[in-house]
Amino acid sequence: DNVGINPKVNNMLKAFDQAQNDLLWICDSNVYTDPGTLRRSADLLLDNKRLGVIHHVVFSESPTSFAGMLDNAFLVTNHCRMYLAINAFGIASCLMGKSNLYYKSALDNVGGIASFGQYLAEDNMIGQALWHSGWSHTMTGDLARQPADIGSFSEYCSRRIRWVRTRKYNVTFATFYEPLTESILLGSLTSWALGHIFGLSIVATFTTFMSCWFALDMVFFYRINHESPPSWLWFVLSWLCREALALPLWVVAITGDTVVWRGQRFQFHLNGTVQVL
Questions:
Q1: Helices (H) then strands (E): counts for the chain
Q2: What is the mean pLDDT of residues 110-138?
Q3: What angle, 0 to 180 degrees and rounded to 10, lies between the N-to-C axes of helices 153-170 and 122-132?
Q4: CB atoms within 10 A of CB 237
Q5: Is-contact 150 159, C-beta < 8 A?
Q6: DSSP code of 60?
Q7: Which of 8, 13, 201, 276 sees the fewest Cβ atoms within 10 Å?
Q8: What pTM value is reported for the model?
Q9: Residue 22 in 3-state DSSP?
Q10: What is the mean pLDDT of the chain?
């Protein structure tokens, strides 16, 4: 069946329609979880009938290239940190579709998965639809682990641009706020302000700020994964490169309205849907 441009939705549609039980675990083929994840998620979902979805934070591992290390540095620090923070405060829907446990009845209540076939980020739009219909989200402490399998630097840049551009049309306000969650811009503004007000050295303040930010990212990485990176040297280099690329890639992403995905170019509409060019 084909209900739109999203291959994941098209692939799931028949199984979704034929599902006989109300609990559905939608998990990407390249994701694996720790033993007991499904049990813990199901127990949590069954304890609260107003929960629409249980989801798991994505954790990237085993990079085989520098591009993979860049993606790893992004997912296990900046992305993971913001993902957990937004969900901890419960201020908005924020989920990725890598590993989600749903009530089928809740999905049917917001139109079923077929109604999200015209979106690239069907996971985000499903989450928003559930959220605005009164179905809350929560997480277990489990990780949705996936390999950092990006093969080239250009592929990494293209992926970051594609998903920032997608978020621009799906969660516009949050996307324009994103640069203020990045270390270099925030550190530059902080250093300038402290230098202007208190006469502190801008260079020394910025260096201290970035060092503290990196240290906190490493503490965060260890608390999530319970072990150190395989190579500290390569992780530090990829972290620095990721931080330096964040703002330029955001600027490129925010100024366009088309993306290339799986060899096809798509045009965004203002309502977040896309069409093939």
A1: 11, 7
A2: 94
A3: 30
A4: 15
A5: yes
A6: E
A7: 276
A8: 0.91
A9: coil
A10: 93
